[in-house]
């Protein structure tokens, strides 16, 4: 798929760059909260000297206003990023559909004899459609969702307190193990889902195109029973895939809760017993932990999209890799415009030499 995305690499690179700037802007948020909490505590404790209540309030308002302006810049960048990435992804979708349609025009009739209509249609519709999210946001999701937890971990270790970082870093191997288990089971589950959906689409297309035959032979009830059977299998396949996804997301949620609880409990202990640790630092560490966990949960959802796209992409590219059974020889000469009669002598035709059709 990267080969089809390469012509728009400048668009993708621009979108990712804007996203990185946006993350940098957002990452400043916890430090502002840390400053506000510590400033308020110092004012209440009388550590700010002759600072009046009015001056303190205006200081807080100024910090909040600055935070709001930064968030406004981040929102503008986010809108710009969405437009750029969507344009690139839709162009890839357009190119793929055009290529598949053009390829179908050049395949031999034997391909259409061997493959059912619904299966062919699903390649051009649902299978290509399953690639859209990856075409639009795939690279962006991988880069930013890996960059955000990395940056959050670094900021947690450097800008808050290294002891808070060490208290939760042991959860890293647990994340890695959960990802490995999920990837193994999710990939298989979504391949089964795509195959089941293709069978439903194929059955539907056959019944619609052959409705006269169905009516003539009074096959409505048996055909409905078969369609419902395929629907039940498709439903079971989707539920099984969702069960894998649900287990993974739940595991991440539990680990996220454990990490936050550790930061707050241990952070509270440090605030009470270590004068260099402030409430603001603990609050900032809690925010950075959220910044670490949110991309992890997003990656869990994106693994789902990648598995769906992988199953659909396998079918699309298998179709594009299919060679016509009947093709011109490499040294074939172009046929000039024919004038007069055409006479055939000793001419046969067949998809297989031993089985002539004409």
Please describe the structure with a list of short key phrases separated by commas or semicolons.
single chain, 358 residues, mainly alpha, 0% strand, elongated
Structure, explained:
It is a single chain. By secondary structure, the protein is mainly α. Helices cover 80% and strands 0% of the residues. The protein is built from twelve helices and no strands. α8 (162-168) runs antiparallel to α11 (220-273) and α11 packs antiparallel against α12 (279-320). The radius of gyration is 30 Å and the shape is elongated. The two termini are 41 Å apart.
Secondary structure elements and their pairing?
Layout (H helix, E strand, L loop, with lengths): L1 H4 L3 H19 L1 H16 L8 H54 L2 H6 L2 H13 L2 H29 L1 H7 L3 H38 L1 H6 L3 H54 L5 H42 L38
Helix pairs in contact: 2-4, 2-7, 3-4, 3-12, 4-6, 4-7, 6-9, 6-12, 7-8, 7-12, 8-11, 9-11, 9-12, 11-12
Low-confidence stretches: none
Shape: elongated
Query: SS-based structural class?
Result: mainly alpha
Oligomer: single chain
Based on DSSP secondary structure assignment, what is the total number of beta strands?
A: 0
């Amino acid at each position: 798929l990267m080969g089809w995305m390469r012509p728009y690499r400048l668009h993708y690179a621009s979108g990712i760059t804007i996203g990185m700037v946006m993350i940098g802007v957002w990452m400043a948020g916890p430090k502002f909260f840390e400053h506000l909490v510590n400033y308020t505590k110092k004012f209440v404790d009388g550590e700010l000297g002759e600072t009046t209540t009015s001056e303190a309030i205006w200081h807080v308002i100024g910090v909040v206003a600055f935070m709001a302006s930064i968030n406004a810049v981040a929102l503008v960048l986010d809108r710009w990023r969405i437009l750029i990435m969507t344009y690139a992804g839709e162009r890839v979708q357009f190119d793929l559909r055009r290529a598949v349609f053009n390829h179908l025009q050049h395949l031999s009739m034997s391909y259409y004899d061997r493959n059912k209509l619904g299966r062919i249609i699903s390649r051009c519709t649902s299978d290509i459609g399953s690639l859209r999210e990856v075409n639009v946001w795939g690279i962006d999701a991988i880069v930013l969702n890996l960059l955000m937890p990395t940056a959050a971990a670094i900021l947690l270790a450097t800008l808050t307190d290294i002891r808070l970082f060490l208290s939760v870093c042991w959860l890293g191997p647990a994340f890695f193990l959960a990802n490995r288990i999920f990837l193994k089971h999710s990939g298989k589950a979504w391949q089964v889902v795509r195959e089941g959906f293709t069978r439903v689409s194929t059955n539907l297309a056959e019944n619609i195109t052959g409705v006269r035959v169905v009516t003539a032979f009074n096959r409505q009830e048996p055909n409905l029973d078969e369609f419902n059977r395929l629907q039940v299998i498709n439903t079971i396949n989707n539920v099984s895939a969702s069960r894998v996804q649900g287990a993974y997301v739940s595991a991440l949620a539990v680990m996220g809760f454990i990490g936050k609880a550790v930061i707050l409990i241990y952070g509270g202990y440090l605030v009470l017993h270590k004068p260099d640790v402030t409430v603001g630092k603990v609050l900032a560490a809690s925010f950075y932990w959220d910044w670490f966990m949110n991309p992890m949960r997003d990656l869990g959802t994106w693994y789902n999209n990648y598995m769906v796209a992988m199953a659909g992409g396998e079918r699309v590219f298998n179709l594009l890799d299919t060679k016509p059974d009947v093709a011109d020889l490499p040294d074939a000469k172009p046929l000039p415009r024919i004038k007069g009669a055409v006479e055939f002598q000793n001419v046969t035709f067949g998809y297989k030499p031993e089985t002539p059709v004409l």
